[in-house]
Amino acid sequence: xxxxxxxxxxxxxxxxxxxxxxxxxxxxxxxxxxxxxxxxxxxxxxxxxxxxxxxxxxxxxxxxxxxxxxxxxxxxxxxxxxxxxxxxxxxxxxxxxxxxxxxxxxxxxxxxxxxxxxxxxxxxxxxxxxxxxxxxxxxxx
Amino acid sequence: xxxxxxxxxxxxxxxxxxxxxxxxxxxxxxxxxxxxxxxxxxxxxxxxxxxxxxxxxxxxxxxxxxxxxxxxxxxxxxxxxxxxxxxxxxxxxxxxxxxxxxxxxxxxxxxxxxxxxxxxxxxxxxxxxxxxxxxxxxxxx
Lengths: 141, 141
What we know:
The structure is a homodimer. Chain A has one helix and twelve strands; from the N terminus they run ββββββββββββα. Chain A starts with a strand and ends with a helix. Chain A is mainly beta.
């Protein structure tokens, strides 16, 4: 769907040493990393997210456990289950997202293209719908 | 010790939504992030690392479970237990490191200042000892 894509990363696996996945900024995915955050200790049944960004590019990776991600525009929606440290979900600008079904102990790692900027968030779905509809009209010819 | 320091990061905690720790590159720690990697599914009893970098800056965070890190120069050594997602261990250039006591399911996240460069590694301890002794003589006056 628009501004959402799925990545399968490499994994250096060794029976003695374990697994390692390495991501090179601007090479493994098409943006630089200015912010890294991770979500953890999420209580059972929690649904979070409920926002879109105006300009931010993000890569979501569930490095432990699993989580489901709903991505949505006024025209389409998709559900992605992140259940392996070598799977990535890229979410670009103007996509609504909700995260849910965090398994106990799950850790969702997010790499973001910009530093935190409160003005880049759209947190009201009605407002998002209006802005995104206008945006996607000009974007998708 | 030389080129090793301990960080305590913030944590946005909410009883409903869970915890989130956010790291701003070049602000939360003094380098930009060009590479992100994570080590996982490490078998019980494994000890890994056994190298130094010549120029790389790294931040190590155990985002799930716990792990111990030995950092060492020819003149001093230290053991750090990373057991919480809000603890970080900075390791700069010319420090030998070994990682061990990975708990089952633990995930060690590493943020690195440069892309992968095979020539930046020193993997032989005797060679490291020699280079580091010369390096630290000029560094520590």
